[in-house]
Amino acid sequence: MTNRIQLYDTTLRDGTQRRGISLSVEDKLQIAQLLDEFGFDYVEGGWPASNPKDTMFFQLAKTRLTHAKLTAFGSTRRRGVFVEDDANLRAILDAQCPVATLFGKSSVFQATQILGLSLQDNLEMVEESIQFLRQHDLEVIFDAEHFFDGCKSDVDYALQVLRAAEAGGAQWIVLCDTNGGSLPHEITEYVELARRAVSVPLGIHAHNDSGLAVANSLAAVIGGATMVQGTINGYGERCGNANLCTIWPNLVYKMNRQAGRELMLKELTRLSRTVAEIANLMPDDSAPFVGDNAFTHKAGVHVGAVRKFPEAYEHVHPESVGQSRRILVSELAGKSNLLYNFHNLDASSETVTELVQTVKKLEARGYQYEDAPSSMKLLVERSLGNVPSYFEVDRFHASVTKDQRMISEATVRIIIGNEHFVEVGEGDGPVNSLDVALRKALSQIYPIIEGLRLKDYKVRVLDGRDGTGALVRVWIRSEFRDETIQTVGVSRNILEASWQALLDSVDYALWVSHTVPAHLGKQSQPL
Amino acid sequence: MTNRIQLYDTTLRDGTQRRGISLSVEDKLQIAQLLDEFGFDYVEGGWPASNPKDTMFFQLAKTRLTHAKLTAFGSTRRRGVFVEDDANLRAILDAQCPVATLFGKSSVFQATQILGLSLQDNLEMVEESIQFLRQHDLEVIFDAEHFFDGCKSDVDYALQVLRAAEAGGAQWIVLCDTNGGSLPHEITEYVELARRAVSVPLGIHAHNDSGLAVANSLAAVIGGATMVQGTINGYGERCGNANLCTIWPNLVYKMNRQAGRELMLKELTRLSRTVAEIANLMPDDSAPFVGDNAFTHKAGVHVGAVRKFPEAYEHVHPESVGQSRRILVSELAGKSNLLYNFHNLDASSETVTELVQTVKKLEARGYQYEDAPSSMKLLVERSLGNVPSYFEVDRFHASVTKDQRMISEATVRIIIGNEHFVEVGEGDGPVNSLDVALRKALSQIYPIIEGLRLKDYKVRVLDGRDGTGALVRVWIRSEFRDETIQTVGVSRNILEASWQALLDSVDYALWVSHTVPAHLGKQSQPL
């Protein structure tokens, strides 16, 4: 029995059935190339009969993949239609992929009640459709929909459907837990049954409605399946598909299987985050292996242990999946957490104790330093007296007027030593305008600020219970030279919260570049 | 063998180790009462030696729970200290709970390397600590930390630790997969081993680092465990604890076990959402059973099937966990989706086809109607010519000035028939001020608007790649009489996006109350 498990990705088809996802052709191409780079074996690119956008994708993707086999998805022929005349199958041929995945019902209830077929009809549709595509030299994978439910109510028929697929020439038969309701031991049992019924290699396609998609996929592998279908980050309809970012490292690191391009496993986190960014979805911070929290330790007692022996609370090395260990400074923390992150603190000093208290108080007011290490750094360094005052904010004003057009404008007045600077900025909105005005004012004295670029901006309303008067937390990510700066601001006023985060990013850039404050009389050149 | 599984909740202790959670004493009391209402058997209230805040919680909670047993968490005595003198154990006694949960190492590596103990020391600490608390008439649960890793490296010692706990009088022994790295079949195997080693009933405490916490908990039950420890919504350190909102319905609906107050299972979704709200965390929309997407169907082919037979793609009835089925209108949808939601549409008309196109276009521009059914309704009803124009917006202006103080102000000018109304509003921030000004202006002509209350406000930056110039989507939830109104607005300008959502909420309230537009000459009383 082979040790290698085929990884079959359906992010571009099943994954897009997740609420809130909408991928352009270019998005799909980027993701397909990424999957190819990571050694995925099959990339299900779309459902040509259902989505005409996919035809263009298939054309363009053809020349871009060097390893992964592009796959077109579709249904078996319709009842009463000849295979040659069936639009579904025609669309698959037109996609000109090397591989086709056909889905068909493997449950009595689904075939008869949902599709209104006779049991014999269904078997013929399955066999003929597969045979037709095989005659056109496609590799054919058969997705046996509702297989596990089918087994539970009428196992003989479910197995008959598999045999029909085998007779049609399918090279893979994938057993689908389509409504996501099965348990792992049931999966193993029925996969073993299927192995005795057909000689074709088997795959598993699980859904997460019971929180068991990963477990069910691994249980199928234990039962003898050698292909796992899933999506990056578990995207999919309802509660999602089986998460390949969880399954892949489990297969390789825990179950001694081979899968994908294993050298790339140590960049798994990059794969997960990049796909999330392309799909414009927030990453799941608690995701196994790749989530921001996966190797983040908070409780004091864990932190103490982890400093001595990382494996104390980690099941795999963070680096093996492209992460590194993080220790949070938070209210559950003690000095351990601060000391882990800031090596210039004197463990025995009062300053450290006060700092822990200060952080706890600020966090209670809504500040979150876990995501804003630059603001945290400023807080610590200011407490040690290491951060000078670079400028004073005298006033700011931001406004939005909608009359015929929408106009956003902001003015900022800052004081540096004896001089003051007033500047106006225009922008897409009030925050953008403030940002523009601030930079205009500052870069006259601190030209280095022109190298500070705002990259990402997030707003979170903290306690929605007060409607539009709620506390708001703004997070900003900037790039400055080669460094990423992340800062935070909190207020009931979204402009003020944004302003705090902007000021921290500017202060940090000036501080980290050792800029001398202009009002100290020297030319403000960075050292 | 009993059919009943004890549900042990540690949301208030292990759950708080999740990044981003910080619960006040009042928050903890609310959650504890909720757990009590749902029939949870044990509520681990805190860790008194580690968190002084917990002492107050234990005092106040004592009188409020009618079913659940309040539990204090803590470690076995320290090395070289007598039990009577140990501060940990003293803190547990002072909490005056009926139950104590003590954790101790059950792995050679953990005991010797992390804690620096001799193997014999560790056994004595376990036995003596438990015995001490039993002598004080507490029910004692022993959490065997790192049990599964311990078994993998030195199974004899791991079992010795369990026997020491049994000798000390522990009434429950909970096997912990502390670093979350075990697989389900390993869990079942070692639980069965433990059952042969001790006579004390066993529990399971799983972590989700491999995406298997739920599966591991169920595997332990299959192996004979009769207690499951976990948290609501799977909150916890790193990738979280075992999610009791997933485990409980699986146990009752799939595994024929009894657990909790089963009548309350059909309000499970309320439990999950309320705890998320108290913890001030966004709910996980894709969570099994309780997530907003769990019974939400998007793809056209699923929708068609589900309209005929709901069980086609649902593994349990949505009502059995406090949900109802939802069909999304989205770009993957066809007419089926619109027709499911809007019964006054004529399936054959051009209007429906155009509407589907319009929705797809708007969604491509960032609008999300899945969360904003009131905006969707307005869109549909406007296309049918059913929504009159209640007022015209001539101008608005919003500004924020920070000088000595922070001042937010907005002016709104609206036209109704021949009259115009200009009003100014002050507020915590620009959006709040706009909201105040708008209501001031409108309620002079439409007094019914005073019954419209803004309840929740969310902002999402859609494509962070453009920094502060990014597209922003604002969602607003309002209450109007007994109805919940949810509306959306999208723009690069956050004030304009908020304004759109506010206007939709006002239009919806006026339309749903059959208000006659004032400029039609009649008194604008609702029918």
Automatic annotation (TrEMBL), chains A, B:
Transmembrane segments: none annotated. It is an enzyme of class 2 (transferase). InterPro entries: 2-isopropylmalate_synth_dimer (IPR013709), AIPM/Hcit_synth_CS (IPR002034), Aldolase_TIM (IPR013785), Citramal_synthase (IPR005675), LeuA/HCS_post-cat (IPR054691), LeuA_allosteric_dom_sf (IPR036230), PYR_CT (IPR000891). Gene3D superfamilies: 1.10.238.260, 3.30.160.270, Aldolase class I. SUPFAM superfamilies: 2-isopropylmalate synthase LeuA, allosteric (dimerisation) domain, Aldolase. This is Citramalate synthase. The keyword Amino-acid biosynthesis applies. It catalyses: pyruvate + acetyl-CoA + H2O = (3R)-citramalate + CoA + H(+). It comes from Sulfobacillus thermotolerans. Pathway: Amino-acid biosynthesis; L-isoleucine biosynthesis; 2-oxobutanoate from pyruvate: step 1/3. Its EC number is 2.3.3.21. Pfam families: HCS_D2 (PF22617), HMGL-like (PF00682), LeuA_dimer (PF08502). The keyword Ligase does not apply. Residues 5-269 form the Pyruvate carboxyltransferase domain. Keywords: Amino-acid biosynthesis, Branched-chain amino acid biosynthesis, Isoleucine biosynthesis, Transferase. Belongs to the alpha-IPM synthase/homocitrate synthase family.
